[in-house]
Specification:
Helix content: 25-40%
Shape: globular
CATH class: Alpha Beta
Structural class: alpha+beta
Strand order of the largest sheet: 1-4-6-5-2-3
Strand content: 15-25%
CATH topology: BirA Bifunctional Protein, domain 2
Radius of gyration: 17 Å
Distance between the termini: 23 Å
CATH architecture: 2-Layer Sandwich
Length: 213
């Protein structure tokens, strides 16, 4: 994976999102057809340590902003580590192979404005998870495809655990595409696995690691 260079999130978030007519900037891959969204379950954390390590990874050890479901920002490594401790479950270690957290990636093709991708994920997560689950997300711009990592704590406020049931990722594809449209980004949520697979290949291998131990 390319080394992260000068990935200034605050700079990306300044200014208004461009209109739909200018939705893809300086892209050699632009076509009249709306670009394909990508939503992928990239892995799971099976204990508190896995989740803490994932926080460090998606925040680049505190160099990138983590935002939670309340809108709070965490950008120092100490703050990120404390947030991971706050997600701790005292009896969690007693339950073997129970998923502590779920890791999602939301991505758009090269040329899509990163700030629009992040805003769309923010709105998607708020509508989909905020009522019952804690989560954090971070924008990455170190690959050609701007993408957002979203990590959900599986234990809900109601005491029930989150489960990615069959068909749910396709629903997320469609909801993410709707949120992109709301901020002026044309997007398509095809159910074609071939297209999704091609888009995934544009991301780095490390971004798609699945924690299984």
């Amino acid at each position: 994976m390319s080394r992260l260079l000068n990935d200034s999130i605050s700079g990306l978030l300044n200014g208004d999102v461009k209109t739909k007519s200018n939705r893809i900037k300086n892209s050699n891959h632009y076509t009249k057809r709306a670009p394909e969204v990508m939503v992928k379950v990239s892995g799971f954390g099976y204990n508190n340590a896995h989740t803490a390590n994932h926080f460090d990874y998606i925040s680049r050890n505190g160099k990138l902003e983590l935002e939670d479901e309340t809108g709070l920002i965490y950008q120092e490594q100490n703050a990120v580590q404390q947030l991971a401790k706050d997600w701790n479950e005292s009896d969690f270690q007693q339950r073997k192979r129970t998923r502590h957290s779920t890791h999602l990636i939301f991505s758009m093709p090269d040329g899509t404005e990163p700030k629009a991708v992040k805003q769309s994920v923010r709105e998607f997560a708020k509508k989909t998870f905020a009522d019952n689950y804690q989560y954090v997300f971070a924008l990455h711009t170190d690959t050609d495809s701007p993408h957002v990592h979203l990590t959900i704590k599986n234990l809900g406020f109601d005491g029930k655990r989150f489960h990615v049931r069959k068909g749910l990722p396709q629903v997320w594809h469609e909801q993410f595409a709707v949120e992109l449209e709301r901020v002026g980004i044309a997007a398509e949520a095809s159910s074609g696995l071939k297209k999704i697979s091609q888009h995934v290949s544009a991301l780095s291998a490390n971004d798609l690691n699945v924690v299984e131990h």
